[in-house]
């Protein structure tokens, strides 16, 4: 098994796969805001920042975040010196706020070391928030080290190229050895970025566009006639469905109540509407028992839905006019115009905007004149 894999690798190398890929990239590279122009030296700060942002979203989704970060903090020293709150705020909407904390901690560590990122994978791995993929991507792109980053897209390309049927999660050693064997010593950074572009635009999960692919000549998956079938998907685990309630309280001037989540855990340190825990169950079973104080709570129609990596969430929304103009302990009033800059997660922004719109509707006002269905005292 190992010797046939070695033989395949040798064949692919002899066929000049990496050269074809780099030549293709010279003609078709995507223009992305964090990329150095052809022939220019990449800025390690921009490479690192883009790779961290791209852990959360696509290039299109990451671009506005990247531009905002480099506008506010053009150097790693500036980012390290920024208040954590401001960094969290600019990260809001990307989820996984522990990554924003790590981003800030990493900037501080690099700034403390003189502002220079280490160039070797092993040293990059010691920095906060940098895992194996990100370390390899930075080493390759920023420093032209012969590192072999493997994310989901690159794992798919390699699986098809080598006709690996085994699901990616169970095939790491073969994928890693293939990736290392194929990585050229000359221009490994361009090669890595080319694979990223091929994964995003050509060797897509469905309908790979083999006609345009620089790997087509060598691709064993394509030769087998069904490139999409590589790698096999493996067993899918059902994502648990959790439910909860969020409570929207609006003051006469339009401000609403919010609180900050604890720093550790899911969506740590972001702002949220007050509410209870998220538990597995049905949305119909959610009631107002988790309300933060007694008020004339009204359930709003529908719910807000959000999908996290490990579970899906449906939040029932309750609304009430503010019983008092002062904020209860641990809560603050938020002006609705400041919602984008107050550190709300995408989920909670969606919940607050949806609740505000329902709360101000004539239907809600009519229903508010009838006795409330549920209150908490
Ligand atoms: S030839 Fe087709 S299947 Fe093979 S790597 Fe290219 S796009 Fe993917």
Main pleated sheet? 5 strands, mixed
Low-confidence stretches: 373-377
Based on DSSP secondary structure assignment, what is the total number of beta strands? Answer: 8
Q: CATH fold name of the largest domain, please?
A: Endonuclease III, domain 1
Descriptors:
single chain; 377 residues; Nucleoside Triphosphate Pyrophosphohydrolase; 2 domains; five-stranded mixed β-sheet; 15 helices; 41% helix; disordered C terminus; binds iron/sulfur cluster
Description:
This protein is an alpha+beta fold and 377 residues long. The chain has two domains: 2-229, Hypothetical protein, domain 2 (Endonuclease III, domain 1, Orthogonal Bundle), CATH 1.10.340; 241-368, Nucleoside Triphosphate Pyrophosphohydrolase. Helix content is 41%, strand content 10%. It is built from 15 helices and eight strands. The protein has helices at residues 2-14, 17-28, 44-54, 59-72, 76-81, 84-91, 97-112, 121-124, 132-143, 152-161, 172-182, 188-201, 220-223, 346-359, 362-368, and strands at 241-250, 256-260, 271-272, 279-280, 298-299, 304-307, 312-321, 331-334. The strands form two sheets. Strands 1, 4, 5, 6 and 7 form a five-stranded mixed sheet that branches. Helix 2 crosses helix 12 (188-201), helix 3 crosses helix 4 (59-72) and helix 9 crosses helix 12 (188-201). The relative contact order is 0.11. Mean pLDDT is 91; it is low at 373-377. Bound molecules: iron/sulfur cluster. The site of iron/sulfur cluster has 14 residues, from helix 10 and helix 13. Iron/sulfur cluster binds next to helix 10 and helix 13.
């Amino acid at each position: 098994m190992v010797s046939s894999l070695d033989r395949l690798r040798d064949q692919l190398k002899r066929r000049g796969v990496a050269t074809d890929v780099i030549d293709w990239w010279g003609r078709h590279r995507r223009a992305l805001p964090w990329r150095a122009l052809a022939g220019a030296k990449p800025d390690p700060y921009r490479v690192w920042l883009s790779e961290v942002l791209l852990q959360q979203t696509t290039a299109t989704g990451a671009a506005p975040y990247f531009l905002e970060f480099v506008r506010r903090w053009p150097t790693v020293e500036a980012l390290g010196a920024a208040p954590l709150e401001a960094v969290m705020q600019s990260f809001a909407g990307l989820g996984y706020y522990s990554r924003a904390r790590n981003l800030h901690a990493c900037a501080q560590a690099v700034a403390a070391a003189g502002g220079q990122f280490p160039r070797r994978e092993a040293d990059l791995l010691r920095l906060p928030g940098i895992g194996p993929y990100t370390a390899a991507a930075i080493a390759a792109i920023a420093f032209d080290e012969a590192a072999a980053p493997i994310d989901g897209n690159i794992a798919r390309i390699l699986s098809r190229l080598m006709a690996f049927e085994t699901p990616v999660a169970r095939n790491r050693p073969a994928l890693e050895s293939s990736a290392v064997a194929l990585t050229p010593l000359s221009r490994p950074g361009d090669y890595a970025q080319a694979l990223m572009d091929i994964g995003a635009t050509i060797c897509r999960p469905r309908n790979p566009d083999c006609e345009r692919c620089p790997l087509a000549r060598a691709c064993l998956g394509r030769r087998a006639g069904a490139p999409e079938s590589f790698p096999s998907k493996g067993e899918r685990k059902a994502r648990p469905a959790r439910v909860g309630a969020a409570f929207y309280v609006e003051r006469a001037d339009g401000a609403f109540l919010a609180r900050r989540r604890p720093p550790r855990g899911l969506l740590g340190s972001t702002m949220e509407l007050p509410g209870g825990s998220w538990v597995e169950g049905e949305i119909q079973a959610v009631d107002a028992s988790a309300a933060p104080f007694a008020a004339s709570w009204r359930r709003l129609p529908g719910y807000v839905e959000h999908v996290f990596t490990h579970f899906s969430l449906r939040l029932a929304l309750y609304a009430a006019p503010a019983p008092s103009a002062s904020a209860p302990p641990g809560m603050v009033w938020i002006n609705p115009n400041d919602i984008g800059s107050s550190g709300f997660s995408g989920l909670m922004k969606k919940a607050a905007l949806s609740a505000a719109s329902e709360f101000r509707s004539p239907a809600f006002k009519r229903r508010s004149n009838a006795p409330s269905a549920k209150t908490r005292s």
